[in-house]
Design goal:
The complex is a heterodimer. By secondary structure, chain A is α/β, with parallel strands linked by helices. Chain A contains 8 helices and 7 strands; from the N terminus they run ααααββαββββαβαα. The chains are: A alpha/beta, B alpha+beta.
Chain lengths: ~240, ~375
């Protein structure tokens, strides 16, 4: 519950309060309240898909995931890492493998060194904020020799956003990890120089790309300016 | 009695930028120098950070195109291409043939203008004052005119749309491009004659700031930076997108990975781009430029996609996390300048201060792309 409280910024709850009035609490009722009281089935199908609200995320986790094609990169990973728990599934255009954060150093080192995987190229590394479902770190690995690619993900909780650094595996991870720390407050343990890169040097307590950071205030202001309709659809404008 | 003292040396910190003509934008690096040798570099970026990834989360899929012009402002068509490809993958839109060809033609012309900009500015970095810049800008302007005729804008084109392009090109488009290409070829030849064998140019760039193929991959370098080190990795060939598999072109690679090789690779790439444009003009079909059934509002299913193009600077990719609805839940821009610039420290340490300028110039950064 503590993390639930944390994820609700004052600005966002204010926005929810406000938008409730014209729409008579339609579909939004649960957003500002603790999880236990939230209705399971939401009225108004379209607005329940709104990004930024916790409910769709919870639904997404239960949905069936397509299994990765046999003989593909997911199987190669499973062979190279027999004693690591890998949860692989087929995304819209690439194979996604979820691993626990404690396995990150081993998985990444093997991904680079194992001749069958050969992921010498770290395309990018970034964070995604899923509010109370935690923060996610996404690694995009590519093998230039073999031409295959894979997305590796790890989930962190909001109150302990720490993950081992992969700078010792790929030097190129250095700036990507610093950027992710700036934007999401994810601490990369073992990073040689984890100081703000894109943000001012003293800005170490605010993480702009987290979903609860105050771009919501601007949305709220836009809603006021444009009237009730846009105020209601915080995540999705009306047609 | 005269006591002999050892000479003491002190390392000095030199602040270069953020306002400095050779930093190509708002970029600061703190050089620690021992005499003339650079022993440490600390790059400081972020002056142009506008939070584009966050802004894109609050714009619907068509509004997001506008931001793509503002990241790498020298290769706007290529960025729009990457963004539109990602949205098309997500919403499963089919792009009509004509639109694909128009995109390829404009993207390759855009690559030429971007490389012309590099060659011109690089000449300045290496002490040629304005000559190369003037040559390059004259040629760039002819192509720039075409872009203006097509999109109505000189810089922020906003011409590509998910599913195609916003409107058809002017009637005389093919003829105009055919007129301009010989001029461009002549201009490139002029620049080639001016720079490639210029004694000063060669002396200042050969053997400077070399990076091995292994290190280049490890640092995540892409584009001409990677190919100059001898790695023939080009998304147009290795992970063909759009209609690039229909054209005959070569991927130039360097041998030593130094500053001079990066220049040569870029110069040769412009010739290859002209080859692609010529073939695309030959094959350009008639037909629609947008899919017949295009929803007024693009709605995406849940899922994650990544689409990348070979930008003039390297791999420019867009990763979209969608939770449904008309806006991305998270949009990540994988910008080539960011990764390329992160290797600056490795390339610069051990060189002279004057070479630091040449090395930075050879990375060919666009600071808006680095900071996003």
């Amino acid at each position: 519950m503590a993390e639930q409280e944390q994820s609700e910024s004052p600005a966002e709850s204010a926005a929810n309060e406000q938008s409730k009035e014209p729409a008579a609490g339609k579909a939004q009722g649960g957003a500002g309240q603790p999880k236990a009281e939230r209705p399971k089935v939401l009225p108004g199908g379209a607005s329940s898909q709104r990004p930024g609200l916790p409910e769709p995320a919870a639904e997404a986790k239960t949905s069936d995931r397509e299994r990765p094609p046999p003989g593909g990169i997911a199987d190669l990973f499973a062979q190279a890492l027999p004693d690591v728990k890998l949860e692989a599934y087929q995304g819209l255009d690439s194979v996604i493998i979820e691993v626990s954060r404690d396995d990150i150093p081993q998985v990444m080192q093997t991904a680079k060194d194992d001749p069958s995987l050969d992921c010498k190229f770290l395309r990018s590394l970034f964070g995604v904020d899923y509010l109370e479902d935690g923060l996610e770190v996404v690694y995009q690995l590519v093998s230039l020799e073999k031409g295959h690619e894979v997305v590796i993900k790890t989930r962190l909780t909001r109150d302990d956003p720490q993950v081992p650094s992969v700078t010792s595996v790929w030097q190129g991870a250095n700036w990507h990890e610093r950027e992710t720390r700036d934007m999401f407050g994810i601490i990369f343990e073992g990073h040689p120089h984890l100081v703000p890169l894109l943000l001012p040097e003293d800005m170490t307590d605010h993480f702009p790309l987290r979903k609860d950071s105050p771009l919501a205030e601007i949305e709220e202001w836009q809603g006021e300016l444009l009237g009730e309709e846009t105020g209601e659809g915080k995540g999705e404008t009306k047609e | 009695m005269v006591q002999q003292q050892e000479l003491e040396t002190v390392d000095i910190n030199i602040n270069m930028g953020p306002q400095h003509p050779s930093t190509h934008g708002v970029f600061r690096m703190v050089l620690t120098v021992d005499g003339e040798k650079v022993i440490d570099v600390e790059p400081h970026i972020g002056y142009m950070h506008r939070g584009g990834e966050k802004l894109s989360e609050n714009m619907d899929y068509r509004q997001g195109i506008g931001y793509q012009d503002r990241t790498d402002y020298l290769t706007q068509f290529l960025n729009e291409q990457a963004y539109c490809m990602a949205v098309e993958k997500l919403t499963k839109l089919e792009v009509p043939e004509r639109a694909e060809y128009l995109r390829v033609i404009l993207c390759e012309l855009n690559r030429i203008t971007s490389h012309l900009m590099f060659i011109g500015a690089f000449g300045i970095d290496l002490g040629l004052f304005g000559t190369s810049f003037m040559y390059a800008f004259r040629e760039r302007e002819y192509i720039q005119d075409i872009f203006e005729e097509v999109s109505g804008e000189r810089m922020m084109y906003g011409y590509f749309r998910p599913g195609g392009v916003v409107w058809d090109v002017p009637e005389n488009f093919v003829q105009r491009v055919r007129e301009v290409l010989p001029q461009t070829k002549q201009g490139l030849k002029d620049l080639d004659m001016l720079l490639t064998n210029n004694e000063i140019f060669v002396a200042r760039s050969k053997g400077v700031g070399a990076i091995s193929a292994e290190d280049a991959i490890d640092w995540g370098l892409t584009g001409p930076m990677l190919r100059a080190s001898g790695v023939p990795w080009d998304l147009r060939k290795d992970q063909p997108y759009s209609v690039y598999d229909r054209f005959d072109f070569d991927i130039p690679i360097g041998q030593y990975g130094d500053v001079y090789d990066r220049y040569l690779v870029r110069l040769e790439e412009t010739h290859q781009s002209i080859r692609i444009v010529e073939q695309a003009l030959e094959q350009l079909p008639e037909g629609p430029i947008l899919p017949e059934k295009l929803p007024r509002k693009l709605r995406a299913p849940e899922g994650e996609v990544y689409a990348a193009v070979e930008n003039a600077r390297g791999e420019y990719g867009i990763y979209i996390v969608s939770k449904g609805g008309d806006k991305p839940y998270r949009l990540k821009i994988r910008s080539p300048s960011f990764s390329n610039l992160s290797a600056l420290r490795t390339m610069t340490i051990g060189n002279y201060i004057a070479d630091a300028v040449a090395i930075l110039g050879s990375v060919d950064i666009v600071l808006c792309d680095v900071d996003r």
